[in-house]
Every structure is written in C-alpha cells, then in structure tokens.
Design goal:
Number of domains: 1
Number of strands: 11
Radius of gyration: 20 Å
Order of helices and strands: EEHEHHEEEEHHEHEHEE
Helix content: 25-40%
C-alpha cells in the first residue's frame, strides 16, 4: 500500500480582510493527486500530465488540430484527477496552523507505489461555494493565457531542428485561469502548493517526509508524508496465505 498524507498546513493571511475578533474565515481545502507511470523508452517529461510533447504536436495535420490538443490538455489539467479530496474548516484566523491528528489528512492511496506523482493543494477563502474547478472551453480559447500558450507552441514548431523531447507546459495556464475563476466567484486563493515527484529520485524506498514547504504564493506552508510498502511475497508463490 501507498499513502500521501498532509500532516500540517499553516496559513499566514486568511484573505478575509477583517481585523481583530472578526478576522475568521471559512477555508476550503482541495487536493488533487495524479499518479503516472514511466516507461523505459519515454523521458519523464513526456508523461507528465501538465505538458504536451512537441513531437506529438508535429504529428498533427494542421493548426486547428494543434490548438484543440492544447485546449484538451488545459481542460484536463483543471478537470477531475485520479483522486481528489475536499475539506471545509470554519473560523480560520491569520497565522493559523491546521493540524490533522496522528493519521494526518490522507489525500491519496493506492495498492502499489507509483513511479511518479503530481500533487496539488488549493486553500481557498470562500465567500460562496466553489462547485467546480471546471473551465469553460470558449473562455479558455479567448483568454490571453491560452493565446500565449498556442503562440509558444507554434513558435517551437518553426525551429529548424526542434527538440522533439521538449514539452509545451500547460499547467501554468490552467492555474492562471482557475485563479481568475476563483476571483470571479468572490473566492480568494489563500494558497496553492504543487509538487511533481519521481520515485527513483524523491522516494526510492517508498517514503518521504517534508516540513514547512512553502507554496507558490508564499502565503502557506505544508508538511507532508509519503509512506509505502510492497509485499515481498506474491499470491502466485507457493506457501502464500
């Protein structure tokens, strides 16, 4: 079995905007975890969920097909992951440390230790419910962020000898558009933490433990633990019970 758990989260500013006794916020925690598998033939960058390989774009017949592939990638990045979880906490003050007990907040579990993990954690001060992180395709196409992504992809394909193992990253575009959506919904982003880990590099024995890891906003710190073990015996082996 393999588990990813959050042990502690510290939020410096709860984004509520009030002072003193009234500075208490309703916070919502969303966690997305996507495992991935690496093959001997594929470079790690080629299988990460937040990018589209340049070699893949070169095989598409025209600009419309390339634009659609990039759009699909952005929408997929903002869509439901393999596992996700949601937790609401009331009365969160500035500089509050959120503890989740001895067992922690488990945000992912699997029967085997994955080759890699894409992990994302959102902390939102909510003035109204966030019903979905889904993005509207038409709004994505019209956004400056996506237009810049598409222009970068087309420019990369104009290179005489493009690096075929290169990847056009879509994760940043998805995060930018999701943040705009949160603002439109009157929901303030208090923190966003992400990590992409490879077993061979980051948790070769199935375990990893980190404290006081800052998020991308500088407003949140996360303590997390990876814990896994694999049975030395298989059911097909004689004597297994």
């Amino acid at each position: 079995m393999f588990y990813v758990r959050i042990n502690k989260i510290k939020v410096f500013n709860n984004r509520e905007g009030f002072l003193g006794l009234f500075n208490r916020a309703e916070m919502q925690i969303y966690s997305y975890v996507k495992p991935f598998t690496l093959s001997m033939e594929a470079a790690p960058e080629a299988v990460r969920t937040e990018g589209v390989a340049i070699s893949e774009l070169m095989e598409l017949p025209d600009a419309n097909a390339r634009r659609q592939r990039l759009l699909d990638a952005v929408l997929a990045e903002a869509g439901p992951p393999a596992q996700s979880s949601y937790l609401e906490i009331n009365g969160v003050k500035d500089n509050r440390t959120l503890l989740f007990g001895d067992s922690g907040l488990v945000i992912f579990s699997s029967a085997r230790i994955p080759d890699g993990l894409d992990m994302r954690l959102w902390m939102i001060e909510s003035d109204e419910d966030v019903r979905s992180f889904a993005l509207d395709a038409d709004k994505v196409l019209d956004s400056d962020a996506f237009k810049g992504l598409y222009a970068a992809a087309e420019t990369a394909l104009l290179v005489t000898n493009p690096v075929l193992s290169g990847v056009i990253a879509v994760g940043g575009v998805a995060v930018s558009l999701l943040r705009q959506k949160l603002r439109a919904n009157k929901d303030d982003l208090a923190g966003y933490w992400q990590a992409t880990l490879y077993r061979a590099e980051h948790y070769p024995h199935g375990t990893r433990d980190r404290q006081d890891t800052y998020d991308t906003t500088g407003n949140m710190m996360v303590d997390y633990t990876l814990f896994g073990y694999e049975n030395s015996l298989k059911q097909s082996e004689p004597g297994f019970t």
